[in-house]
Amino acid sequence: MPIIQVKDLSKIFGKNAKKATQYLDQGLSKEEILEKTGNTVGVNRASFDVEEGEIFVIMGLSGSGKSTLVRLINRLIEPTEGSVYIDGKDLATMDKKSLRDVRREKLSMVFQRFALFPHRTVLENAEFGLEVQGVDKSERSQKAKDSLEMVGLGGYINQFPGQLSGGMQQRVGLARALANDPEVLLMDEAFSALDPLIRKEMQDELLELQETMKKTILFITHDLDEALRIGDRIALMKDGRIVQIGTPEEILVNPANDYVEKFVEDVDRSKVLSAEHIMKRPETVDVEKHGPRTALERMRKEGLSTIYVTDAKRNLHGYVTADDVSEAAKKEVKDLKGILRTDIPKVEKDTSMQEIFDIIHDSPVPVAVVEDGKLQGIIVRGAVIAALAGSEVNLNGTNA
Amino acid sequence: MELMPKIPVAEWISSATDWVTDTFEFLFDFIKNDFGDFIEIFAEDWLMGIPIWLFIVIVGLLAFFVSGKRFGLMAFSVIGLWFIANQELWEELMNTFTLVIFASLISVIIGVPFGIWMAKSKVVEKVLTPILDFMQTMPAFVYLIPAVAFFSIGMVPGVFASVIFATPPTVRFTNLGIRQVSHELIEASDSFGTTGTQKLFKVQLPMAKKTIMAGINQTVMLALSMVVIASMIGAKGLGQTVITGLQRAEVGTGFVAGLGIVILAIIIDRFTQNLNTQRGD
Ligand SMILES: Nc1ncnc2c1ncn2[C@@H]1O[C@H](COP(=O)(O)OP(=O)(O)OP(=O)(O)O)[C@@H](O)[C@H]1O
Ligand SMILES: [Mg+2]
């Protein structure tokens, strides 16, 4: 069962919202309704499911209703119509206590404008959720410290929010939500105030978090690069409506309509970029010199699940997987030849992005860039998507 | 004006007051006697029991620390209090101080909960606002009349009249302070599943603290401004000396006692202002 289910959810701000919903039924636009009734359409008939462990990105221009939608999901705003189910339970029919429990245990929110408590220190801010749940002092302060450490603010625990920069405050907001250890993180433009370097770091951090702790993340952004980088699926919003839901690839390759196309048109660099632009320096082991133990050590250090095997002249022999290697290491096998796999996804330096795209889509290992049988570099999935999104292209990779 | 006979508003109010006086006599008697005794013990046994020099030293030290280890407030307090003692007005000062303390404390104890209630409900706010306006614009002298009816004369009716006059700012500022807390912070609090009480004590009141303290400061100043008026119904203190000066046309006596009130006012005002600090500012 999906952890979040949203069905025909609408929010219309202002009096006589019911009247305005009738106009919506008749297909009037957001502007027309505002003109006729003075009501603002926040969210218009949104429906989607978020699966457990997924990063679901909601993207759209300013005013498209992203913040409203996320507030409907933890019911900070009452919907005009439609329903939200968390773990199959309808929020609308819950009594106050059950709603509080859902908010305490299942959903934690990171706010677009931080919403930190100015009278509490950074640590006390991060402790807030646990304090509300009645967790005792030493335990909650330990958990809060851990999550502050995670966002790189371990040294600032006794400062007040007013003493921190915008980016640091945003990270306190993130730590406050993480300390709660919720099943779902609702993140409303949680990285928008960060500078590009820290932003990328935090995105990686988030991806890792999601991988290791299997968190479900509802991530809001108006930045396509960010959406493509971290989203498992992306929903595009316009004027309160969801116009397309799909994987990053689907959205890039098959924009549902002009709006989506406009969004992605400046990022379609697939035609100009080729493999050598996005490959990076490969981590390898030497088939003649190295045995399973070295391979294992290197993979552990780099956090890899597979590693390519070459010889001294960089001729590509194949790759080994972490499982095989550790098995071999246990059996005291001395070399890698027995466990070498050769079903290598290969491309050349000038292979186009579009082709790489198709190859990498169903490949469990990074794609090898090979010339004359020699390994030149590797391409990871994220790099393709990032490159299509126009974000940082790894130029170092070309001279690897 | 023969067409319309005079509406007997005054008579209605009088008979209503009589009814209240009779019906709650046991309560008023209890307050008048037991509470009155307590006030007297507080002023005459406790406050006046402290040697004058010790009292001045304690206030001076408090002033030093409260003002962030600066000398200005300390010097003013010590010299001011010494001057009052020198003018042989120490007992009067202690009585006045007692009146102000009790009136302020009771005002705050009543005012803060009402302010919270007002902040939580639009209806309550609508009902209470005109009542508060009324309480503050009605000439303070008027409160002396029911005060005397309920509690005869002395300190107790003085405190009663002062409380009515001094409570409104605390109520108003508490309401204002809580309402000023930004919508986003309330949302943040709600999003973590706070109960109403948790939200009040962990977010709203701490954030409103500065505003509430400003209201309390005003309450204290209003209580002090009632000192002379309350002395007309027998509340002891510097106010009585002022009235005596007035009755005997002794400008000097009245002026010195008035100066004493001003000194007390400045000391109390600076103390409460210095105590009004907010974390995270
Ligand atoms: N409390 C409110 N009262 C009235 N209208 C509102 C309210 N909150 C939002 N709106 C309107 O709802 C629409 C969607 O706003 P929302 O804040 O959800 O947009 P957003 O996508 O989060 O934009 P941004 O990227 O700027 O944060 C806007 O037209 C806005 O004016
Ligand atoms: Mg927003």
From TrEMBL, chain A:
Domain of life, per lineage: Bacteria
Family annotation (PROSITE patterns): ABC_TRANSPORTER_1 (PS00211), ABC_TRANSPORTER_2 (PS50893), CBS (PS51371)
The enzyme class is translocase
Indicate where this protein is primarily found: membrane
Any single Gene Ontology cellular-component annotation: plasma membrane
Is Protease one of the keywords?
Answer: no
The segment(s) forming the ABC transporter domain are 28-264
Catalytic reaction equation(s)? a quaternary ammonium(out) + ATP + H2O = a quaternary ammonium(in) + ADP + phosphate + H(+)
Q: What is this protein called?
A: Quaternary amine transport ATP-binding protein
Q: What is the lineage of its organism?
A: Bacteria, Bacillati, Bacillota, Bacilli, Bacillales
TrEMBL record, chain B:
ABC transmembrane type-1 domain: residues covered: 93-272
Q: Which keywords has UniProt assigned to this entry?
A: Amino-acid transport, Cell membrane, Membrane, Transmembrane, Transmembrane helix, Transport
UniProt cross-references to Pfam families, sorted A to Z: BPD_transp_1
Chain ranges passing through the membrane: 46-66, 96-119, 140-166, 220-239, 251-268
Where in the cell does this protein reside? Cell membrane
> Which SUPFAM superfamilies has this protein been placed in?
MetI-like
Q: Topology relative to the membrane, per the entry?
A: Multi-pass membrane protein
Q: Which GO terms describe its cellular component?
A: ATP-binding cassette (ABC) transporter complex
Main subcellular localization, coarse class? membrane
Q: Which GO terms describe its biological process?
A: amino acid transport; choline transport; glycine betaine transport
GO MF terms here are: amine transmembrane transporter activity; carnitine transmembrane transporter activity
Family (UniProt)? Belongs to the binding-protein-dependent transport system permease family. CysTW subfamily.
Query: What's the name of the protein?
Result: Proline/glycine betaine ABC transporter permease
